[in-house]
Amino acid sequence: MIEIKKLKKVYNGVTVVNVPQLEIKQGESIGLVGNNGAGKTTLFRMILDLIRPESGEVLSKGNKVAGAEDWKSYTASYLDEGFLIDYLTPEEYLYFIGGLHEQTNAQVDEHLATLTDFFNGEILKKGKYIRDLSKGNQCKVGVGACLLQKPQLLMLDEPFANIDPSTQFRLKNILKDQNKNHGVTTIVSSHDLNHITDVCERILLMEKGVIIKDIATSSSTLADLEEYFGVGQTIPANTPIIDEEENH
Amino acid sequence: MIGTFFNHELKAFWRSKNTGKSIGVKVVMGILLLLLFSYVLIFGLFLDKILGKVLPDSDLTVTFCGIILIYFLIDLLLRLQLQELPTLKVQPYLHLPVRRNSIVGYLALTALLSFFNLWPIVLFTPFILKVILPAAGAISAIAFIISIIGLSVFNNYLAMYIKRKANLNGWVFLIAAAVLILIMLGDFMWHIYSVRNISYLFFGNLIVKPYLVLLPILLGVAMYWLNFLYLKENLYLEELGSQKASAYKSSTEIPVLSRFGIVGDLAANEIKLILRNKRSRSTLIIGLFFMFYGLIFYTQAAYGETIKIFVGMFMTGIFIINYGQFMYSWQSSHFDGILVSKINFTDFLKAKYLLFTIASTIAFILTTPYVYFGWRIIMIHFIMYLWNLGINITIVLFFANRNYKRIDLSKGAAMNWEGVGATQLLLSLPLIALPYLVYLPFKYAGYPNLGFAAIAVVAIIFILTRNFWIKKLEEDFYSKRFKIAEGFRNK
Fold first, then answer.
1. pTM of this structure
2. Where would you find the membrane-spanning parts of this chain (chain B) (predicted)?
């Protein structure tokens, strides 16, 4: 589905992304983890042809992404609020996106009916522009717009960050359903290790622009990742908390 | 405390994006401001001569006293449209241990920092010094100046007050505007009363009874207190903010445009962008004011036809120039979304052409009343309308590919320099020069009519070859889009 060759991005002399070789097969579910500044969003943007790499290329279904339009018809993505047209109401925006994929408003409505749970009654017919929604609700609109496009490749950047626990749970189910039952290739980044190991079958761990681990999710993955991110931290095991006030 | 606030205020001004980042832009803006300032000053200095010319029969002082109140009525109307509320700047202080009175005092005082408060003083003081001072003495002159300042302050706070009220209830604004317009109509249309006489009643008496100066002072102070108290009562974010309290926002469709498919959808989205965001809306309103531009030139026989080319182009193409100069910055906040979505850039460009064509057509229709000054003016307008459609849209879009500056749509357009860069300054050159390059050779050869015909022919050629130019613009865009998208990501 996606093939990356010798991809490199440099900002002010600092290499922020350096991926010599990466292949993502059709139907895989990829989880991208890494600390702030590891280059996750930059990698996403290069896959989406939003920034120009210093060298190397990204291929989608064997065709170069750069300068091409074909991949846009089967790729849906939501990286941040910058992907939403914020002066439209959610309905207008979703109809617009549907229109780009030759869907009539009725078809869009039909599809949106399947998202009723996910939207949780906070998105549609609320009489608000997207810019007046909370960040979590904006994220719901973005994800909803992605699903509306019936993509073969779905890319979400930190979708769990701003949404409430119920929606996180629903989003995980949606991602699993898309991947298992519709064969959608998903690439999701997150700081929540529990969610990412739950949803994704393959985890890419980035550090300073380099993919340092590429592992298939197993029962030990979560512990491995926690160990990596917990560098140098020791949690005192079951230290009883002594309250001075009460202990005299 | 107020001192610290002002210190922060100064930093906010110099570090704001509106001020323009590069030193070059700052210099040019400074010069432009100085130029504007000196225009007003010169107008003020020659106000006595101008009034003498326009109304040669009546007494100079009487005329002057008569226009002051009219000025302030128009001033109020303009302020309601263009003046910014100093608003959310206080947000970082609200939760800190700062006394409410200092915050409110600061908010109320910074409201005075507006160019609107400078113009009446610059405009009227020279006349007062030149005419009133020698005729009536120093005390009357000082009383005059203080009255003008007092009325400015009154207007300033009245406009603020109405705008704050309007934030909570949109009808307040409409009612205020309607009342102002009715006051004007009552004088100039229905002749029920004369604002000029009322104005003279006060200012004429002010000359003999300088103590009347207390009235404008009282008005100014009272309005300040009203604002102060109102702010103190309503020091909550949503009431201070410039956002309207959440009225139900309905989804709308523009059925005519949906016939154009994706192109129509994109144009419809952009129309919504213009109407639903503050900066674009005020750009549109400023554009509507420019429909009166012709009155300056067409009423004077001294201006020849050469200038009419510019005036005609400006009026029928004001939207292309004024809105187009910031293209695609209008969409900077969701430009990434446009790039990754299934939008063909050809369609994207065609939507711009469609939008500009609609706007220009409306502008042309709005300028048809100028037929009063002769059919030839309408002919020039029509030719320049074609020129706008054929050439200016393409020029504007060519420069749009070179514009990398993000703009915040929630700020007003008046005196807002965010997004202004070299592109905007360079853009004006071809816009102004090109029609003259076509016209002037014919004019100096003695065939001005052929010159107009040549402009029309060139314009029509460009309209007919539009698809070719769209192709060129698209190729150009593909080589620049990373830079554009990156610039728009820089908040």
1. 0.74
2. 23-47, 59-82, 103-129, 135-159, 171-193, 213-231, 282-303, 309-330, 351-372, 378-400, 420-439, 445-464
